[in-house]
């Protein structure tokens, strides 16, 4: 056991420890770089989602406006349909009255 070189043994341990430390340090640097890239990607995604949210909100407002316009148009069409029906009824009454008057005049002429 006297031939065993303790300084060489300690030197080997220190070198191994240093290699482990360098590998760990490199691994931490890679992890840090990945974290930075991930954060950058996350910020880009959040920014894009915000733009899409604004676009969706504008679209929703336009659809609500279009829905209101369609409701107004439907009310106008119902009123027009009702007026057309009233006009037809009045026209039919006028025609019936003209036929009755014409029939009365013809009856008076032959009597």
Automatic annotation (TrEMBL):
Principal location: membrane
Keywords: Coiled coil, Membrane, Protein transport, Transmembrane, Transmembrane helix, Transport
Transmembrane in keyword set: yes
An example molecular function term from Gene Ontology annotations: SNAP receptor activity
GO aspect biological process, one term: vesicle fusion with Golgi apparatus
Matching Gene3D superfamilies: 1.20.5.110
Top-rank taxon, per record: Eukaryota
Subcellular location: Membrane
Transmembrane segments: 89-108
Topology versus the membrane: Single-pass type IV membrane protein
CC terms in the record's Gene Ontology section: cytosol; endoplasmic reticulum membrane; ER to Golgi transport vesicle membrane; Golgi apparatus; late endosome membrane; SNARE complex
Assigned protein family: Belongs to the VTI1 family.
Name under which the protein is recorded: t-SNARE coiled-coil homology domain-containing protein
The species this protein was found in: Anopheles sinensis (Mosquito)
């Amino acid at each position: 056991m006297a031939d065993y070189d303790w300084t060489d043994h300690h030197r080997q341990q220190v070198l191994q420890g240093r290699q482990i430390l360098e590998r760990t340090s490199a691994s931490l640097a890679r992890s840090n770089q990945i974290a930075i890239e991930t954060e950058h990607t996350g910020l880009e995604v959040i920014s894009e989602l915000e733009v899409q949210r604004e676009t969706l909100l504008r679209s929703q407002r336009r659809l609500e406006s279009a829905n209101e316009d369609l409701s107004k148009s439907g009310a106008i069409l119902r009123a027009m349909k009702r007026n057309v029906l009233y006009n037809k009824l009045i026209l039919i009454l006028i025609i019936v009255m003209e036929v009755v008057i014409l029939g009365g005049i013809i009856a008076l002429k032959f009597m």
